[in-house]
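Appendix B. Chain record.
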Amino acid sequence: MAHNLAVIDGKRAMFCVGSREAAWHKLGQRTDSAVTWQEAMGLAGLDWTVEKIQLSGPRGPVEAWGIFRTTDGQFLGPVGDTYTPIQNRQAFDFVDFLLEAEEDAHYESAGALGNGERVWCLARIPHDFTVASPDDKHQTYLMFATSHDGSLAATCKLTTVRVVCQNTLNMALGSAGKFIGVLHTRNATRRLEEARDLMQGVAQSVKSLEEKLNTLAQRRMTPDSLTAVLDELYPKPKAGDQKNAASLAAVVASTTRRQNILDEILRLYELNDGNAIPEIRGTAYNLLNAVTEY
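Structure tokens predicted for this chain:
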């Protein structure tokens, strides 16, 4: 399933704020107002811990370890002997310091994927912006994500993607955005100072992104510039040995696939999301949106 939301204690492990979803395609829990980190963990089904246990074979312990959820013994994944688990509570504790440093920031969503091996929490931050038109609004978030199977390092990132499932988490991880260093300082005062410094950097990053997107929204695409960008993104296949029938067949197949991709991108480019924002039609920002949607 595209959402891949974990089921823990009989419920989908996800919550989000707002009435746009209930909570997402009628999965998970929804709340109308901002919540505390403790409430967020409860609503998202993340109020549990993990432990690292050495695995055993037919003849006893082996040089392998696994991460298990302590509440029900669910196996979350194999890890190495040097792996140190990060508890869900630690993730929310980190984000809490960031929220305390940014007035009007609040938790937006949180959840677990698979069997609970990946978790995330998302905070809405008050640095929204528009591109080209007041109708093209971009909301900004700080996302914290980590894994209990070693597949994802602890990551905190600035994103405009509202994470509510597996697909949107992948989009947020893969999108352009500022990565935030994870705080390790134990002193609370020092941690808050560092969090404020980080949030100041986030505000600057949002401003930089706004300026770049508005620059693209002012740049008109010509047939030549459109072709040049698409050729850079999707280079034309090159034939190796022209006498090699297999090579020629591969080039033909690759050429066909490339043309299908370009046709779809150009269709989305021309559609311009139903011309929802007419001001950006025919611009580099229009093309960026078409490529991103594809």
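Further analysis of this model is presented in Appendix C.
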